[in-house]
Amino acid sequence: MIPYLLRRVAGAVLVLFVLSIVVYAMFYAVPGDPAKLACGPRCNPEQLAQVRDQLRLDDPLPVRYWHFLQGLFVGQDFSTGTSVLHCDAPCFGLSYQNDQQVTELISQRLPVTASLALGAMVLWLILGVGTGLLSALRRGGITERVLTWFTLAGTATPVFIIGLLLLMVFCAQLRWLPFPSYVPLTENPEQWAWNMLLPWTALALIESAKYARLTRSSLLETLADDHIRTFRAYGVSERAIVGRHALRGALPPVIALTALDLGSLFGSAMLTETLFGLPGLGQLLVHSVRTIDLPVVVAVVLVTGAAVVIANIVADLLYAATDRRVTLT
Amino acid sequence: MTSEVLATTQAGAPAPASGARQVWRRLRARKAAVVAGAGLALLVLLALAAPLLSALTGQDPNTYHDDLVDSARGGVPTGTWGGISAEHWLGVEPGTGRDLFIRLAYGARVSLVVAVGATLLQVLIGVIVGIAAGFGSRFVDGLLSHVSDVFIALPMLAFVIALTAVVPADFPRPLLLVLVIALFGWAGTARVVRAQTLSLKKLDFVAAARLGGSGPFRVARRELLPSLAAPVITYSAILLPSNIVAEAALSFLGVGIRPPTPSWGQMLSTATTWFRADPAYVLLPAGLLFLTVLAFTVIGDALRVALDPREASRLGVGRRRTRNANKADNANKVDEAGGASVSARVSGAGAADTADMAGATSAPQKGGPA
User: Fold this and answer.
1) Which of A117, B29, B34, B290 gives the lowest tally of CB atoms within 10 Å of its CB?
2) What pLDDT is attached to residue B83?
3) A89–chain B nearest CA distance, Å
4) Contact A316 B163 (CB under 8 A)
5) pLDDT tens, A282-308?
6) Considering CB atoms only, which of A158, A268, A305 is closest to B289?
């Protein structure tokens, strides 16, 4: 167990290291002058030279990458001409747009994306596992047909279509819900949930299709196992078989997939966030791409990459914890 | 002597039903697939005939009609249902008054070209990497498999969006979309092809070809590729609809197709500000995109079943079966597209299999649907 974990963590660190090199090189070695981007459109040559100096653009790329790494682990100092700005340990540099610290920008956005992802997860698990259960139990009937097409439609619908339809129906036509605007959980929990309801539903409707399919096939497979047949032979009620025994064998893959999806949502929630105007990580990325704010782009990509790598390890650990047949070696 | 024997056996054997024809017959046995196919044929026709339709209706995708929108109400089209009229079959775009039908038709072109192009490129890279990994030395296999794993795990959408930031503005956008979608989406195919190559490698006919003195390239081309066709086609049929969504998503986010070129995703993005005043403007591109992706998904699923020899009997092709049994079977099959493969991997129950599962589920979807 412990050696396994150490090996996985070492692998993850290696992957992230390689990723950081690739991402850094990809974004800073491209044509186009970062100094001009950082300095803005109305910038005289004098200011430009100062920015070049501040960003150490005259150093070769490997040296700049080294400074970037240093910033990540021990912090970095930026001279803004007259004063020196210190950027604390996990330092991704300064935004080209307003000289704000990128780390600060990201930590402001993280709670929004986390709210979205976690709330949606609760909904999609209820909806997806429920649907999967139902369709596995009622094989061949009209219920299964309807559920089958529901899951198919769910896979075929991009989230922004569902989201737009939800907005049209519940905000514009029925006026049951406010047009979403993010209210922090710590400020007003009720308003937070009320505003997040539509984004959660949109995301959950899409994701639940995948979970319904996985639950269904996993459950059908478990139901065909020998030990279930033995339970049946002993006369255990169908309800107890499914609810207590089969579901237990069928859920580990669902749990593992949940962990993976939560990890990747940090990097892929931008559609939901953009549509509903939620100031999360994805929206930050889209915005910084439009304004070519390279330090922010690099930081968000690295953070989302890290989320995925960590989620992968967590998923494997959860899988082993929930399924006794799996041993981590 | 040997060649004579070969010649006679070939001549004497009854002509086997061609594989393609059999697949075609199986596809036609599924009503959903036939309907989806007809719908897609219409869509392709619409895309191909866009300039023709433009000439026929006398409308241009980029001509503004200020007289057709009510500037007093912020640019809502005059008339019912988004300004439907004899000249403008599906009404006009709010704000600009551009003809919606022609813009949708040209949008179909963009959508299909980008999705098909990206899928072809993904499959090409995937097949080359997959065969190289499955057929190469241990070192090559290890390296390529690790690279594929990393690519599968990455949040693809984030990378694609980030990449569009650093590409020069004058680079043609549809080509850029094809390249970035393919660059971050080949790994799933590579994994499938590698697994298939590994199992094919052990079979006698491949061993025979190698013993017969064929080099690795010849074996790959003559022996492996034909056998890889079925899984690769099945997998590309899953990739295609998800690439359509990817293009729409990128254009929706404003980092894909640039105006004034019409694209469905971009229309939906504009529609976010108009859904109160002009619902038709949301429903038309949304409906078209939804139906397109749904049709491709249904066809892809039908193809998967039709190409899988184990499934053939369940379809009841060429057998006498009651209509009802047939129906129930079809219903059962629709939803197993991703589910079955996932559970097959997961039930292998090794720890590493969880990572496989991530690939099986997320690779075709590519973080797109969130």
Assistant:
1) B34
2) 66
3) 24
4) no
5) 889 888 888 878 888 888 888 888 888
6) A158
